[in-house]
């Protein structure tokens, strides 16, 4: 709960206890946003019903027992029995001052840190990352950063698709090209889209090649050293490419976080054995299956999770089960967040259900699928290239940066930049625009990838927020003041200052909520509201030319804390904030 809400809730509870007896000390005071005050307590309505009295009377009684000292400037009963509460300016100023003086902006670390694995990005080896991976990468990274900031022990996990039958044809194709081609970083290998496509075409059209590919899969699964060596070459080419994408996007994933599907290869058999021993996996139509309760098909027939196919091969689900078992047994995690596309929702529900049957998941260990909605084109359909193909992530970012350059020239600048500086700023704007757009809608909703909108320096966009931080920095630069030395004291002198300070007080609870629910869009939305409150302040309150000294020091302090909150918040989202624009 935000600080203002918490403190008012406590005061109303104390009043309830004083008025109606100690059993009311932890009644829900029903604190809600208010049109006429900062917040309102609506508890009088349900309580009146219970007590058989008139709500307004009950509200009057709460107001009469309310201790307002130091916190509440005004408490008014209104309407059918609402208690409108206005915080005192001094209290708001004091809380803002506290945040200003705290290195963590008064955001507490959690009482009970958990070991959380955040699984995200998870692209496939020898395949280009596409716009779907863009979103799982960006959202996952924000979730990891937020949980870490809150004091959790975060384990990033990039569950790359680096195993399975396609590797037979991919390895054979590599051999046809000659492995020196990979060493030379030849385009035939580096261009993953065409590499995969050509391998596929040969597999479909050339019986001899297809035969070699099949034999190669068998050799790979049997652990043949030469085959594994070739496989590793492919994995490394892809890793270099993933890395380049992560660096460009400013994503905190490195090679150390990769634990691909191949990692679990040796753990599949023991996992399956445990499921058999526990009577969870049973043979059905020749395949080994688990039937988690509650999952049925159209005719009401139980739906299987196939654990071992009738040909003896293991499945995507088997790997996911082995992964859960390993994370619980060896990593001792107590929360798993899977940042993966929404279309895999049923898969995860069923895998989690089987893991629960096996006792790997339970009250102590939680797993959740943070479902990432599809990215749509402006036509409302799944985003595709003009030719109908999947959109390459790198091309999207290139285009965003190009557009950022055009928009950048339209806004006023305090100074002119040399080419390299300008290029770096524009890159940060383009990347920031794409990331913020991805993060500002609820992660499970589909969203329209609309470059026109997201690249603008106004509206709910990354560039608007970046520009807000730059405008604040420019005040300090012009005044020759170091933001670190703006220590206030903060005093509230007018409505705009008050609105800004009050908004600042919500930061901690918003970060906590975003981490709790794995929903970075809450933080993204809050930062926009904060920037708007700042704009309101900036337009009505001269800072460097403030009328008198205590006011000037206070306004500089408000600027300093707003800047730090915006920069910290944007950093938690992974959105870069250039210092000058
Ligand atoms: N590699 C998969 C893909 O690109 C995503 C993996 C999701 N994670 C998992 N544990 N199954 O679609």
From TrEMBL:
One GO molecular function term of this record is:
arginine-tRNA ligase activity
Listed InterPro entries: aa-tRNA-synth_I_CS, Arg-tRNA-ligase, Arg-tRNA-synth_N, Arg-tRNA-synth_N_sf, ArgRS_core, DALR_anticod-bd, Rossmann-like_a/b/a_fold, tRNAsynth_Ia_anticodon-bd
Annotated Arginyl tRNA synthetase N-terminal domain residues: 6-87
Q: What class of enzyme is it?
A: ligase
Q: Which UniProt keywords apply?
A: Aminoacyl-tRNA synthetase, ATP-binding, Cytoplasm, Ligase, Nucleotide-binding, Protein biosynthesis, Signal
Q: Which Gene3D superfamilies match?
A: Arginyl tRNA synthetase N-terminal domain (3.30.1360.70), HUPs (3.40.50.620), Isoleucyl-tRNA Synthetase, Domain 1 (1.10.730.10)
CDD domains attached here? Anticodon_Ia_Arg, ArgRS_core
Q: Give the DALR anticodon binding domain ranges.
A: 465-581
Q: What is its main location?
A: cytoplasm
Highest rank taxon of the organism: Bacteria
* Signal peptide region: 1-27
Establish whether keyword Cytoplasm is in the entry. Answer: yes
Q: Which reaction does it catalyse?
A: tRNA(Arg) + L-arginine + ATP = L-arginyl-tRNA(Arg) + AMP + diphosphate
Q: What are the coiled-coil residue ranges?
A: none
Annotated motif 'HIGH' region: location in the chain?
A: 123-133
Q: Where in the cell is it found?
A: Cytoplasm
Which Pfam families does the UniProt entry name for this protein?
A: Arg_tRNA_synt_N, DALR_1, tRNA-synt_1d
Determine if ATP-binding is one of this entry's keywords. Answer: yes
Q: What is its EC number?
A: 6.1.1.19
Tell me the HAMAP family matching this sequence.
Arg_tRNA_synth
- Family designation: Belongs to the class-I aminoacyl-tRNA synthetase family.
Q: How does it assemble?
A: Monomer.
Q: What is this protein called?
A: Arginine--tRNA ligase
């Amino acid at each position: 709960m935000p600080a203002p809400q918490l403190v008012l809730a406590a005061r109303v509870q104390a009043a309830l206890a004083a008025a109606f007896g100690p059993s009311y000390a932890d009644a829900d005071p029903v604190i809600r946003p208010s049109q006429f005050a900062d917040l309102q307590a609506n508890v009088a309505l349900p309580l009146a019903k219970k007590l058989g009295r008139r709500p307004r009377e009950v509200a009057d009684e709460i107001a009469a027992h309310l201790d307002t000292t130091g916190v509440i400037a005004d408490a008014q009963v209104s309407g059918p029995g609402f208690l409108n509460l206005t915080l005192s300016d001094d209290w708001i100023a004091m809380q803002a001052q506290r945040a200003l003086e705290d290195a963590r902006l008064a955001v507490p670390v959690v009482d009970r840190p958990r070991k959380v694995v955040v699984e995200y990005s998870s692209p496939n080896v020898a395949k280009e990352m596409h716009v779907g991976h863009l979103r799982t990468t960006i959202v996952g990274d924000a979730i990891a950063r937020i949980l870490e900031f809150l004091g959790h022990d975060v384990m990033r996990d990039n569950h790359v698709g680096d195993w399975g039958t396609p590797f037979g044809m991919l390895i054979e194709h590599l051999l046809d090209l000659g492995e020196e081609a990979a060493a030379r970083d030849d385009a035939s290998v580096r261009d993953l889209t065409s590499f995969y496509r050509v391998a596929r075409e040969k597999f479909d059209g050339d019986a001899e090649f297809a035969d070699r590919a099949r034999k190669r899969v068998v050799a790979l699964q049997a652990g043949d050293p030469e085959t594994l060596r070739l496989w590793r070459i492919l994995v490394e080419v892809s890793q270099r490419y993933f890395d380049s994408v992560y660096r460009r996007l400013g994503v905190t994933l490195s090679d150390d976080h990769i634990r691909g599907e191949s990692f679990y290869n040796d753990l599949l058999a023991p996992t399956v054995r445990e499921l058999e021993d526990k009577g969870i996996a049973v043979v059905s139509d020749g395949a080994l299956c688990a039937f988690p309760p509650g999952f049925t098909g159209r005719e009401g027939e139980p739906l299987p999770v196939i654990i071992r196919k009738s040909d003896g091969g293991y499945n995507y689900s088997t790997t996911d089960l082995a992964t859960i078992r390993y994370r619980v047994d060896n990593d001792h995690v107590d929360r798993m967040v899977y940042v993966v596309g929404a279309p895999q929702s049923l898969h995860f529900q069923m895998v989690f259900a089987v893991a629960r049957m096996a006792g790997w998941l339970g009250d102590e260990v939680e797993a959740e699928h943070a479902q990432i909605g599809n990215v749509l084109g402006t036509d409302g359909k799944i985003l595709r290239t003009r030719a109908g193909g999947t959109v390459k992530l790198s091309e999207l970012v290139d285009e965003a940066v190009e557009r950022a350059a055009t928009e950048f020239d339209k806004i006023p600048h305090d100074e002119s930049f040399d080419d390299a500086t300008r290029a770096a700023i524009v890159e940060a704007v383009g990347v920031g625009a794409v990331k913020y757009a991805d993060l500002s809608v609820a992660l499970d909703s589909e969203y329209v990838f609309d470059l026109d909108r997201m690249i603008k320096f106004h509206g709910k966009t990354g560039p608007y927020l970046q520009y807000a931080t730059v405008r604040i920095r420019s005040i300090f630069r012009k005044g020759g003041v170091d933001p670190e030395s703006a220590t206030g004291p903060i005093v509230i002198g007018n409505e705009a200052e008050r609105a800004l300070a009050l908004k600042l007080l919500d930061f901690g609870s918003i970060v906590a909520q975003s981490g709790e629910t794995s929903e970075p869009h809450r933080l993204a939305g809050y930062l926009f509201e904060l920037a708007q409150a700042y704009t309101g302040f900036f337009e009505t309150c001269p800072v460097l030319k403030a009328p008198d000294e205590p006011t000037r020091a206070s306004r500089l302090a408000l600027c300093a804390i707003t800047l730090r909150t915006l920069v910290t918040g944007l950093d938690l989202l992974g959105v870069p904030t250039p210092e000058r624009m």
